[in-house]
Amino acid sequence: MSPDPASALARVREIALALPAAMERLSHGSPGFHIEKGKFFAYFWHDHHGDGETVAIVKTADGEEQALLIELDPDCYFRPAYLGPFGWVAMRLDREDTDWDRVADRIARSWELVAPRRLLEMGGR
Fold first, then answer.
1. pTM for the full model?
2. Per-residue model confidence (pLDDT) at position 124
């Protein structure tokens, strides 16, 4: 578990809020990032229900993409509680070798999955 989740949250916040129309609000006590009409595209969880993990949780296109990500890099990705059955995937942020470019790419991809066409035309990346 990250001894300083504040720095990981600051990075996730910077990445998420740089996307068009992105906003932040608490969701079940944790920071969540959404666009209009409350469509969430990312969450930040730290030690959620005592799991010892610091993670960003993002949407995937479907269960197949979720399973592929987990299979390709199980040290980074896992199926999170509650959101996992709906195709979301968690990315561990508490490792020294966290690939922040990959985190940014997955957050942007998640944003693209919920954004309406007019926002997509503004560009997500």
1. 0.92
2. 54
